[in-house]
Specification:
It is a single chain. This protein folds into 3 domains: about 20-115, Tetratricopeptide repeat domain (Serine Threonine Protein Phosphatase 5, Tetratricopeptide repeat); about 135-280, 6 Propeller (Neuraminidase); about 395-690, TolB, C-terminal domain (Neuraminidase). It is about 15% helix and about 40% strand. It contains 5 helices and 46 strands. The strands form 12 sheets. A 4-stranded antiparallel beta sheet has the order 1-46-22-21. The longest helix has about 35 residues, at about 1-40. The radius of gyration is 28 Å and the shape is globular. The protein starts with a helix and ends in a 14-residue tail after the last strand. The relative contact order is 0.08.
Length: about 725
């Protein structure tokens, strides 16, 4: 009997062990599929692996996630199986509430896309092709097979195959951003589709290369067409219809800009027109007949709106093409040799319009093609005359959730973001006296964005606006007396490097006065030597804290700076070159919380006395947790709030300052960051994409060119 009991116990242990192993194998298989999908872009293999997880996984949550990813992969491929895959999540895993919620939203989006006009091959149609790359600066190939784009995970130039969903790289840095700043920029296909031209910039080590290269679509036979000196930068705009020239702009440190023609054969340069960048010279391309250059630049009376012009290549004579009080932007020139597509907000929404050219003049009046096109990234025309574009992904915006002051947990998940002026809002910050909410509003088109600090009176809902005048604004921190705001801003050091000159500004919310507190340092070669990251006030308002990195790859330090004397003290130095980027001061001013990265990319939440001393570890994060961004303390100082990134949704957690296990606070939304808790402990403001993240989508408009100019064989 005793032997039998021992045998049962052994079998039970073995069964548990094999079950645990199966669960681990299922998780490993899921991670492998995720790598195939996201890192390699091999969607077919990813689907096969996800299906295996669904078949074998005993964990219903894991199986549901795999089934959801199958639907997403099919959606990226533009295949009808996506609808069935999302429906299976809903039907087979009803208890997996969050995953089912995402599946329902995806299914709704698919059904809405189906309702868009989709008629026969010979009739006008707007059709969703699939999920697009998250970045751009690229173009559709003439044969409609590939989309070129910059992969901002590495800065490499990549191609996405619209047929298979696979992606491959034309450039190979072989390392991440923290090891190299080399990057591709604009890429443009030759008219015959045999070559692709692109900008390549690297200032990592001498000899630098800044200029234009061309290559075959498989990345072979790469050669430099044109190289500029390191203080200049090139932007490729398009190929001439005969494939002999590239249209490009060359910019220098004085912010002057030249529109040039570059011979593909020998690299010789012909200057077409110089521009003063105070008047935003933007997009340009050859006219359909190749005799002119069409470009857009800002209006004299309104720098935020554009007009379009023609420049004759032979005579270099400028002529107005589209002059209207509205904002008009070039989308592309059709291969029919006569048609130009542009976007305009003249009707109150950003719509697509078509004009016809004849001998350098507009023939007839503009024709409305697509209502409510929105702010899209044009991918250009195929050789059959169809126009492709990428609709933007979800914008980050400010949301406010209510908290239970007793438990600290979220009472309700906000469905809508706060109302604001502009195209996006971010970096919310409650004032210490609880009277104000400050946030940053992004205004204008993507190529001409400007940033405004908005301070909202929570009682009257009235707002005051402050415009520091810098290219970008990041983060807001209130002074303890609720009068001043610290913001971390960035201006491009010059147009010849990818680096930014980081500045910490102090904004007086009563007078509007903007004062530069500290900025990045430069060496004798005018190269930036110090990079500024997060910032915050001391509890008495007499000093500030900030994180600084001395050159790339060197140590990160947390500095305390006295605002009156300028004296500085190092509070903490990172043990690893990976360092730390974010921190948050406790409400009583005694402690600073931060997340530090080691050389293996493990992360640890730590606290250190604000006066300096030994750091104490609170909790560790696995390497696959994703980036942990923006910490915040509860008003009583008992918890440090942070977000745990997930595949679809982030989760808000609270780490006890005294130690222990992180507490789930009941909030899951897409990409939660920039946390700020109101002093009453009843509200938390944060940035998010919303209840789900909208991926960028590839769309096509076909059969809209005049009947006598359409390509043969229909439009694709």
């Amino acid at each position: 009997m005793k032997k039998f009991s021992i045998m049962i116990a052994i079998l039970t242990i073995l069964a548990f062990s094999f079950g645990s192993l199966a669960l681990q194998n299922g998780y490993d298989l899921f991670q492998k599929a995720l790598a195939k999908e996201r890192a390699e872009g091999n969607l077919e293999e990813a689907i096969a692996l996800y299906k295996k997880v669904v078949e074998e996984a005993k964990d219903k949550s894991l199986a549901a996630k795999a089934q959801l990813r199958i639907g997403i992969c099919y959606e990226k491929l533009g295949r009808k199986e996506a609808q069935k895959a999302f429906q299976k999540v809903i039907d087979n895993y009803p208890r997996q509430i969050e995953i089912v919620k995402v599946a329902k939203e995806k299914l709704t989006q698919l059904l809405q896309a189906k309702s868009v006009v989709q008629k026969g091959d010979g009739e006008f149609a707007v059709r969703k092709i699939g999920i697009g790359p998250e970045t751009g600066y690229g173009e559709i190939s003439p044969d409609c097979r590939y989309i070129s784009y910059v992969d901002w995970n590495t800065g490499d130039l990549a191609l996405q195959d619209l047929t298979t969903g696979k992606k491959h790289y034309l450039t190979h840095k072989g390392c991440s951003w923290d090891k190299s700043s080399a990057m591709a920029c604009n890429s443009r296909w030759s008219p015959d589709g045999k070559y692709i031209a692109y900008d390549w910039w690297t200032w990592d080590k001498k000899p630098y290369f800044v200029g234009i290269r061309i290559a075959y679509p498989d990345g072979s036979d790469t050669r430099a067409v044109y190289q500029v000196s390191p203080e200049l930068v090139s932007y490729t705009l398009g190929w001439s219809p005969d494939g002999k020239y590239l249209l490009a702009t060359i910019r220098n440190t004085s912010r002057a800009n030249q529109l040039v023609l570059i011979s593909v054969d020998d690299g010789s340069v012909r200057i077409l027109k110089p521009f003063d960048l105070k008047r935003n010279f933007l997009n340009a391309n050859f006219s359909p007949d190749g005799k002119y250059v069409i470009y857009e630049r800002s209006q004299e009376e309104n720098l935020l709106n554009n007009d379009m012009y023609l420049l004759s290549i032979d005579e270099r004579k400028e002529m107005p093409l589209i002059t209207h009080p509205a904002d008009d932007r070039l989308l592309g020139c059709a291969p029919d040799g006569k048609s130009v597509l542009f976007a305009s907000d003249r009707r109150g929404t950003l719509d697509a319009w078509l004009i016809q050219l004849e001998d350098g003049k507009v023939k007839g009046t503009p024709r409305l093609i697509k209502e409510s096109l929105g702010k899209v990234e044009p991918l250009g025309f195929t050789d059959k005359g169809s126009f492709y574009y990428v609709s933007p992904k979800s914008e980050h915006n400010v949301y406010i959730a209510h908290l239970d002051p007793e438990t600290g947990k979220v009472i309700d998940t906000p469905k809508t973001h706060i109302k604001y002026i502009g195209k996006a809002s971010h970096s919310p910050a409650y004032s210490p006296d609880g009277k104000y909410l400050a946030y940053i509003s992004e205004r204008g088109a993507s190529t001409k964005s400007h940033f405004v600090i908005c301070v909202r009176n929570l009682k009257t809902e009235k707002e005051k606006e402050f415009f520091p005048g810098h290219w970008n604004l990041m983060d807001l921190k209130w002074s303890p007396d609720s009068r001043f705001l610290l913001t971390r801003a960035s201006n491009k050091k010059d147009l010849g490097t990818p680096f930014f000159n980081y500045i910490i500004c102090k904004v007086d919310t009563k007078t509007g006065k903007v004062e530069t507190v500290i900025q990045s340092e430069e060496d004798n070669n005018n190269e930036i030597t110090h990079f500024i990251h997060s910032t915050d006030w001391s509890s008495d308002g007499k000093s500030i804290f900030y994180i600084i990195q001395k050159r790339v790859h060197e140590t990160y330090r947390l500095i305390k700076r006295n605002l009156q004397s300028g004296l500085e003290k190092t509070i903490y130095s990172a043990a690893s070159p990976q360092g730390f980027y974010i921190f948050s001061r406790s409400p009583d001013g005694e402690w600073i919380a931060f997340v530090e990265y080691d050389e293996k990319d493990n992360r640890t939440l730590k606290v250190i006395p604000s006066a300096g001393g030994d750091a104490r570890d609170l909790t560790n994060f696995k390497t696959n947790v994703g980036y942990v961004t923006h910490l915040s303390w509860t008003p009583d100082g008992k918890y440090i709030l942070y977000t745990k990134p997930g595949a679809e949704l982030d989760e808000l957690l609270g780490m006890p300052f005294s130690g222990g296990e992180p507490q789930k606070l009941g909030l899951k939304m897409a990409r939660i960051h920039h946390l700020s808790v109101h002093p009453d402990g009843k509200r938390i403001a944060f940035n998010s994409y919303g209840t789900s993240k909208k991926e960028p989508e590839i769309w096509m408009i076909k059969n809209f060119l005049p009947e006598d100019t359409k390509g043969k064989g229909g439009q694709k």
